Amino acid sequence: MYVPKDLAEVADRVRRGETPRSSVRTLLSWFGFYKRGSTIVYRVIAGLASVHIETRPDFRSVPLDGEVDFVARTDHKEKRETARARPEGETLAPVMEGDHEIASELSYQVGSLEAANRPLVSVRPDASILEALTIMMSRDFSQLPVMQSEREVKGIVTWGMIAEGAILRPGVTVVRECMNPAEIVSAEESLFEAMRRIVVHQYVLVRAYDNRIQGIVTATDLAEEFRQMTEPFLLLGEIENHIRALLDGRFSQAELSAVRDPADAQREIKEVWDLNFGEYARLLEGPANWKQSQLAIDRAIFIERLHTVRRIRNDVMHFDPDGVAPGDLGALRDFARFLKTLAGLTGSGRK
Fold first, then answer.
1. Which residue of 21, 30, 225, 337 could cross-link 4, Cys pair, CB 3.0 to 4.6 Å?
2. Average of pLDDT values for 328-332?
3. For residues 268 and 282, what is the distance between their CA atoms, to the nearest angstrom?
4. Does residue 202 register a pLDDT over 90?
5. Contacts 24+ apart (CB under 8 A), 126-133
6. Considering the chain, what is the average pLDDT of its residues?
7. Res 243: pLDDT
8. In what helix (H) or strand (E) does residue 217 lie, and over which residues does it extend?
9. Contact by Cβ (8 Å): 57, 187
């Protein structure tokens, strides 16, 4: 197993009783990466395990520029039998052994969401109902955590709970008299497991590895997160459909087959719809083919944009949990808009 020099030095410091710290971005850079993806995460987890250390919190449950501590890796058996007790009756899920453990660690974690890392706004149990209402109205909140300290959660208060208290108990004046138990998940819990609770309760509080409540994730946050995750897929689909429509009927089967990826020689190419992004670029790089495409635009710029989109597509298809960089998302939007305009001018969009 490849162990970067910096990671080996960190492991030596941990063995000496130190607790080194770095940002997630720095940790990834030791392996030659700049963001997380399933293959990248696997390699980092395996690298950490090979030198018997781990990160606290899990390096996947914090933003790229968030910091993690490096500590000695806990024995699998000890993890199973002595799962740390959490406030409000929470416990960590048992950890599986061997390769199954690493596989189980590759899931998206709720703590990696942006919303789970925003400063938390809360009220104390003895706060007035008027104070809670004012905070919720001024910030457009649907719920508000009730907390004694950053680690001690007393409950949650919502518009419905306040209204119910006012109707059923007219004398209610403080938050503790109309709150309900809070839904709390570990920052390291699978996002897809936490989704069920978020949908049912409209929120979850997120507890960090050191027992602090580090944020709240609402159903609205979840919807926005999935909008951001799906937009690149939708834009790529739109871009590819426009390219295919622009080139459809311009080339023979033999001409299309000639640009097939040599590494995929058995794949049958019958029409332009069977090509991939790299093959679109290869098809149009030759001056003769470019002329045959009848695209009245600059060839070099168009092909450069195709290569840019191909690179972004490779990142997107690896389901990178850090998402598409803002600049890359802007490039997809711009190219999709450009192709839509071009299709309108050439009439290909009406086919």
1. 30
2. 92
3. 17
4. yes
5. 126/174, 126/175, 126/176, 127/174, 127/175, 128/173, 128/174, 128/175, 129/162, 129/165, 129/166, 129/172, 129/173, 129/174, 129/175, 129/178, 131/175, 132/157, 132/162, 132/175, 133/162
6. 84
7. 93
8. strand 213-218
9. yes
CB 92 within 8 A of CB 53: no
Within 10 angstroms of residue 121's Cβ, the number of other Cβ atoms is 12
Summarised one tens digit per residue, pLDDT across range 53-88 is 999 988 988 888 888 999 998 865 444 433 344 454
Alpha carbons 17 and 171: distance in angstroms, whole number = 57
Which pLDDT band, with edges at 50, 70 and 90, does 111 fall under? Answer: confident
Q: Measure Cα distances from 195 to 46, 108, 200 in Å.
A: 27, 11, 9
Q: In this model, does residue 209 exceed pLDDT 70?
A: yes
What average pLDDT score do residues 248-257 get?
Answer: 92
Residue ranges and CATH numbers for the domains of the chain are 5-105 (no CATH), 114-218 (3.10.580.10), 222-350 (no CATH)
Closest CA to 57 of 65, 49, 48, 66: 66
CB atoms within 10 A of CB 199: 10
The letter for the amino acid at 313 is R
Query: What distance lies between CA 167 and its chain's CA centroid?
Result: 42
Q: Are the CB atoms for 293 and 247 separated by under 8 Å?
A: yes
pLDDT at residue 75, rounded to an integer:
62
For residue 45, what is the enclosing H or E element?
A: helix 38-50
As a whole number, mean pLDDT of residues 219-228 equals: 86
106 compared with 43, residue with greater pLDDT: 43
Q: 3-state DSSP call for residue 185?
A: strand
Residue 334 to residue 45: CA distance in whole angstroms: 36
C-alpha to C-alpha distances, 71 to 49, 55, 150, 170, nearest whole angstrom: 11, 6, 24, 53
